TrEMBL record:
This is HET-domain-containing protein. It comes from Aspergillus ruber (strain CBS 135680). Residues 33-162 form the Heterokaryon incompatibility domain. It comes from the Eukaryota.
Length: 654
């Protein structure tokens, strides 16, 4: 600890004395020291203080904090990291980091120093105090409040632990000081939740909880896993004060974590960031293989698990504390594994470092203690939130079906990327552009067969989501739009698919369509899947073919038999034929047998023939058998024959 010596004259140099302090329990009695929470702002130590009679360099922001904290009559006992820890000794730092939770949890007060009273910061803090006391403030002061909340303290990752375990917090800007609870009440009444930086709400939530914590309950049952914490606070910045500075992205959260004693998470500032990233990823997903690289922000995770559903609605909570509400559409896998009985369909999330959106996917990787939120990213999945606590249903008797779980239902292989941003990109404008796996992790390598396996899995995931969306009464087009955009699909095709699926809102999938989904597990040849999809008498066949083209492109086999199956498809032949022509054009194999089959189709035959003539015109092979099939078509025979004469009157057989 340091003893900050008093002085009435603010211009007199700051003088402190170091002394050892035992943090052992005091029979329920509290400690009388205070802990300072602040930001370095810069590594340049442009000021100095007198420490044990010697000159000691400090940053300008710390110097300003000590000036404002110094009393004019009595000593003030403080914990200040830049003075109490030798910042140049990596081994000492590694030993001290695990003590930070205890230091801040047992402090009599945690003093949050927001900085000097520039840009009316002190007036803004006073305005927040007035709002907390239910008094009105002028518009100019409200603008100053918003400016105050832009300060770097709210973005620093270490402040989460410092206020997250504190039992009493004071906020200080210049000479103005207010209680932390009053600060939170003032922000609530400020009513600027949509204008505030995303990092403010989660920090405010931690400050708000301070009065309800007890200093001797260091292992609170409310502690979160490290995966949950990283997912919540990954946008906060690590202080740039050492070469392994990004390790703080993990180490700064340990004091709030239930996993703080895990061997893999013990602070070690001698390790490079990619090794720390690998260790924490292995800890969260213990049965997955993890690959990281030096100076690469993304890890590649390979494992097995289950997709349980997707997010169909998302909105920010108006509390102003960073809460978000999501609604989930669970799939058949979630039902067969019993999770639909255990979890509510609507979850309240406290905070998310990355923005959640409709179409994001709920998955559970084998070995993980909690589900993850992932997002399709062109040719792979990427992790948005590594661990999330589901909203549990009220205790009661579970559905009997859920007691007999078949853990192989929906069990599949995953290749995911996970990126912990080393620099904050929160202010990036426009939608995030999805990147391919090779762009996220240029050094990642896999066999061609593994690539094809990965793309097949994505295709069937999208089909499953599309089918689930069709079966709900209300179309969830935004979720589908996001999903299709993330796949890399172009705008016109997205609109067509969304409309096609929306047209069948409330549609109950047929057994033949559910059988198509089982091909994922049967591993049928793609040619067989194409045949069955083209001939399927439900809307899902059309959707499957569209997705297969998205991920197979030119390599997708389209035989004469596939085109014939589409021509024979009564309800959806026209839609499927359109997709085939869009992707194959002049190379689509349209034989006399295909034309004959289309002419005989008494449901979609007229529209299919119209499409064939539009693309092939006079070159369309029309034989006597084709004319005979058209004439025997009970629904559209005359219309088809008329069209035959329109295009090929001279060449028609007598």
């Amino acid at each position: 600890m340091i003893r900050l010596l008093p002085h009435k004259n603010k211009d007199v140099p700051i003088e402190c004395k170091l002394f050892n302090y035992a943090l052992s329990q005091k029979d329920g009695r509290g400690h009388l020291y205070e802990a300072l929470s602040y930001v370095w702002e810069t590594d340049i130590k442009s000021h100095s203080i007198i420490l044990d009679g010697c000159t000691f360099p400090v940053t300008s922001n710390l110097h300003a904090a000590l000036i404002n904290l110094r009393d004019d009559q009595i000593d003030r006992v403080l914990w200040v990291d830049a003075i109490s820890i030798n910042q140049l000794d990596q081994d000492e730092k590694s030993k001290q980091i695990p003590l930070m939770r205890t230091i801040y949890a047992q402090a009599m007060h945690v003093i949050v120093w927001l900085g000097e009273a520039m840009e009316d910061g002190d007036k803004a803090l006073e305005g927040i105090r007035c709002l907390g006391a239910e008094q009105d403030i002028p518009e100019k002061t409200r603008d100053a409040c918003l400016q105050l909340l832009q300060r770097n303290w709210f973005c620093r990752i270490w402040v989460l632990q410092e206020v997250g375990v504190a039992q009493c917090i004071y906020i200080l800007c210049g000479s103005v000081q207010i209680n932390g609870h009053v600060f939170c009440e003032g922000l609530r009444r400020l009513g600027l939740s949509s204008s505030l930086p995303a990092v403010v709400g989660p920090v405010t939530y931690l400050i708000k909880g301070a009065p309800f914590r007890l200093h001797y309950e260091l292992d609170s049952h409310e502690s979160l896993s490290i995966g949950e914490l990283i997912g919540m606070y990954c946008n906060h910045n690590a202080t740039r004060q050492h070469d392994s500075r990004y390790n703080d992205k993990v180490y700064a959260l340990l004091g709030l974590s239930a996993d703080s004693n895990a061997k893999a998470l013990r602070p070690n500032y001698r390790l490079p960031w990619d090794e720390v990233f690998k260790q924490v990823t292995n800890h969260i997903f213990p049965e997955c293989s993890v690959k990281t690289w030096f100076e690469t922000e993304a890890a590649v995770i390979k494992g097995k698990g289950w997709i349980l559903g997707h997010i169909i609605s998302f909105e920010k909570n108006t509390s102003g504390y960073g809460q978000q509400n999501i609604k989930i559409l669970f799939n058949d896998t979630a039902w067969s594994l019993g999770y639909q009985d255990q979890w509510e369909a609507e979850w309240i999330l406290q905070a998310c470092g990355k923005s959640i959106q409709e179409g994001d996917i709920i998955c559970l990787l084998q070995g993980a203690s909690k589900p993850s939120i992932i997002r399709l990213c062109k040719d792979h999945f990427t992790i948005i939130i590594p661990s999330i606590k589901p909203q549990q249903r009220q205790r009661g008797a579970l559905n009997e079906m859920s007691q007999e779980r078949n853990f192989m239902d929906g069990y599949c292989d995953f290749v995911l990327t996970w990126e912990i941003l080393l620099a904050n990109r929160e202010n990036k404008s426009g939608p995030e552009v999805p990147l391919k796996l090779i762009d996220m992790a240029p050094k990642w390598r896999e066999d061609p067969s593994e690539v094809q396996k990965r793309l097949n899995h994505i295709t069937w995931v999208m089909v499953d989501i599309a089918m689930g969306t069709m079966e709900v009464e209300v179309s969830k087009s935004k979720a589908l739009e996001h999903l299709l955009y993330q796949s890399g699909m172009k705008g016109p095709m997205i609109n067509k698919l969304v409309k096609a699926i929306a047209d069948y809102s409330g549609y109950a999938a047929k057994e033949s369509e559910r059988a198509l989904l089982q091909h994922q597990e049967k591993r049928l040849p793609i040619s067989k899947v194409m045949m069955e999809a083209a001939g399927n008498d439900g809307p899902l066949g059309y959707v499957i073919i569209a997705f297969l083209f998205q991920y197979r492109g030119e390599s997708l086999p389209v035989s004469e038999e596939v085109v014939k199956a589409a021509a024979e498809n009564r309800p959806y032949g026209r839609d499927i034929m359109k997709v085939l022509f869009e992707h194959r054009g002049e190379s689509l194999p349209v034989s006399e047998e295909v034309v004959k089959t289309a002419a005989a189709n008494d449901d979609d035959g007229h529209d299919i023939m119209k499409l064939l003539f539009e693309h092939r015109g006079k070159s369309l092979p029309v034989s006597e058998e084709v004319v005979k099939a058209a004439a025997e078509n009970r629904s559209y025979g005359s219309a088809i024959v008329s069209r035959l004469f329109m295009y090929q009157a001279k060449s028609l057989p007598n």
